[in-house]
Amino acid sequence: MKIAVSGKGGVGKTLIAGGLAYSFARKGLKTIAIDADPSPNLALTLGLPLEEARDIVPISENKELIESKTGTGYPGVYRLSFSVVDVIHDFSVRTPFGVNLIVMGTVRSVGSGCTCPANSVVRALLRHLVVELNEVVIIDMEAGVEHLGRGTAQSVDTMLVVADANMKSLETAKHIYDLAAGAGIKQVFLVGNKVGSQIQEETIKEFAGKNGLTILDLVPFDQNVVEAEMRGETPLKCRESVALHVIQNLSEKLTSKDN
Ligand SMILES: Nc1ncnc2c1ncn2[C@@H]1O[C@H](COP(=O)(O)OP(=O)(O)OP(=O)(O)O)[C@@H](O)[C@H]1O
Ligand SMILES: [Mg+2]
User: Which atom of ligand 1 lies nearest, measured to the CA of 143?
Assistant: First the structure.
């Protein structure tokens, strides 16, 4: 399974991507979480201490690693097809809950004229990662819609578009949803987040109904998450978190849809 999580800034992409990765890893699946946001912070959600998270060099900035792992011996020619096992071995950081994390860094668009190997490799990683049955790749996308045009997300089989009950985030979600469906992504779902009242729930459901968006689930607003983040800790450790409970359920739903 290859799942991308997208949506407007601040809606909860990182919490949901991290929570899903955690749930899949706990089930024993080989799990890679890819932080594709140019200002990455998935590492903290996955339980790495701040100092270690700061030390991660994004692969787009790690020319030597890229040369050594993908060079073919011919100048300017790179190997651009990857298995999950290779990627975990060569590029990822192991995080405390068993998820293998890859921090992409800034990926420049194909049209920008940048032909540097780091960028080709990063794009190729997203596109040509061959994912087997017992493996899951979760991509925490950059906020907004631009990345879809770049073709980095087209290779995923499921796109989760996250929105809260704010009309701006719902409008962005609709835009992403339509682009993703138009790009031929097999499964596209809306995930409501930070749902703290009946009215918020109705707003999301009504918007989805009117615009033909399928809701996978609604994640409640959870004060435990807010407080863990205030302490600079991962919210994934809060055992009594209602939000995490629903996110874990999401992972079950996705697994059953995949079969
Ligand atoms: N269900 C929830 N209940 C309470 N707080 C939440 C919930 N989901 C997310 N948050 C909080 O909202 C804030 C934004 O969440 P998160 O960082 O996951 O969003 P994002 O979409 O990844 O943001 P960005 O676009 O900046 O990457 C965080 O402080 C997070 O703890
Ligand atoms: Mg984020």
Answer: 25
Enumerate residues 6+ apart whose C-beta is below 8 A from 149: 109, 179
Ligand 1 binding site (Cβ under 6 Å of any ligand atom): 7, 9-15, 37, 143, 193-194, 219, 221-222, 225-226, 229, 235, 243
pTM exceeds 0.70, yes or no:
yes
Query: What CATH number is attached to the domain comprising 6?
Result: 3.40.50.300
pLDDT digit string, tens, across residues 17-30? 999 999 999 999 99
Query: How many structural domains is the chain composed of?
Result: 1
Question: Residue 240 burial by CB count (10 A; 0-12/13-18/19+): exposed, middle or buried?
Answer: exposed
- Reported in sequence order, the residue ranges of the chain that DSSP labels E, i.e. its strands, are 2-7, 30-35, 82-83, 93-94, 100-103, 129-130, 135-140, 158-163, 187-195, 215-220
Domain that holds residue 233: 2-258
- Gap between the Cα atoms of 16 and 70, Å rounded: 31
- Residues 187-233 have pLDDT tens digits of 999 999 999 999 999 999 999 999 999 999 999 999 999 999 999 89
